[in-house]
User: What shape does this take?
Amino acid sequence: MPKKNHSLLTTCYFLLLATFCYLLLATPAKAQDFSLSISPPLLEIMLQPDKSITQAYEVKNEGNQLLYLTAFISPFLPDPQTGKVLYEQNQPSILPQPQFSLNNANLNLGETFILQPNESQQLVLKIKASKNVAEKDYYATLFIAQSVTGRQLLNQTAAQFSGQIGSHLLITVSQAGEFDFIGRIAQFKPLPKIADLGEKINFNLIVANEGQTLFKTNGKIEIFDWLGKKKKEILLRPDNILVDSQRKITCLDEPCYFSSLLPGRYQTMVTIFNPFQSFSSDGGPDTQSTIGDSSEVERSEALSQTISFWIIPFKLILVVIIAIFMGRLVLDRKKKKL
Amino acid sequence: MNSDSYKIQWGNVNIGGGRKTSGGYTLTDTIGQIAPGDYQSNGYWLRAGFQYIHSIIPFTFTVSDLSIAFGSLTPGTPSTDTNTLTVSAGGAGGYQVLAQENHVLRSDQGSNLADTTCDGSSCDETDADPWTQNTTYGFGFNMSGDDIPADFVDSTYFRQFADIESAESAQIVMSSNSIASSSLATVTYKVNISSVQEAGNYENAITYIAVPAY
Assistant: This one.
């Protein structure tokens, strides 16, 4: 009897061990995913009519599934109010535009190619501006889209997904390569306009492009005290403002606000340098400037706007008033007792 | 990049301030100013700069689970499922992810299951609103996690997908103005049918489009 029990226990032990090993080693079925990278993510070029350039892109399947992919070009317009990309469904086509093609030996735009997991593909994009192309800006995205090839019917209510990844092309076609800087500071406001002592002063800055080509917001915000002496400065982030759009501009570095200002009236000036002006490599912000003596040349070539704000120690004043009131109250009571 | 007589591989890598000239090419710095003489001789100008500072990190986009099956639907009993979107954007300007559907959920017999308009008949492809009632029908999505639109206040707020068939433009579902390192958002899909919904298997295709900012 004990022998029989021992054999049963041994069988159970091996069964349990086998089950444990199976559960440990069995890999769950992986759901299909899409994971793709592209480099570079942005290309800005200026091109003369009747000239062409090529740019190599690296596309990599970062996932664990084979991907069927297609490369194509889609034009976009910037949102006039936010500057973000807008892909209109029925965008009017403006012909002739720069022409796009792939210089790859066995691949054209619109054709499907396959990427195995962790496999990369170099796409060599050729951009050609024809002789009669209009001299203006053209904005487009090189998309690498997952092809719907191989999509399964699920035979139940379901949503199926595909991914696309893009790299923007900001193309300026110009014979001379010379532009007037026609920008506008659409909004420049301190937040708040009247602040308490120690309160942070933020800014709402929106810059509009009313010119013929995109520009970058290389510039600064400076603060001057009531004597016109510069107290602080922050550099603006040089974002692209595309033609016929405006964009909210933030700072190059954090923190993106002014603080630790003493009570008083301050003037703050935003300056956007002319991006089309040739100047020396040290032509950045003038750290020695005061509101009255900054370079006239620089000023005339830049966009600028000056506004004022106040720092008033509200809390301190309130504390003093309460202290005076309480003091008088205490004195009055003492007088009454006497 | 190349022209008739020269070639620059990965010509848009920013090296630092100032103008770089060598042989037949010139790169601008973050200022982006133009030297007309160089442009005339080359016929093109590459404007590299601030936006490229971190672009050695590839722009990467991941969609988990390329199909969501809701199973057999019961009228008045919503069915939900999720997948995730992940973005790494090394460009200093950030990124956007847009979404659109090819059409509303449609059966193989051609019947449509409309996109939800939420409890107050107020949500659409641009604005999310609460959808909690089991007597509200349709298909919609909620988002949670990183860099999602502000109108997804909580898990009860739903939107429609922009419908290509109705000429609706793809809408932003994730965005950031700065460098993103594996920003992750969870999308919850919800479908609810009424008792008069025609029987069948309903399907549609949703495309997520990731683009860098400029």
Notes: Residues 21-29, 279-290, 292-300 of chain A have pLDDT under 50 and may be disordered. DSSP finds three helices and 21 strands in chain A. The radius of gyration of chain A is 32 Å. Residues 254 and 267 of chain A are 21 Å apart (CA to CA).
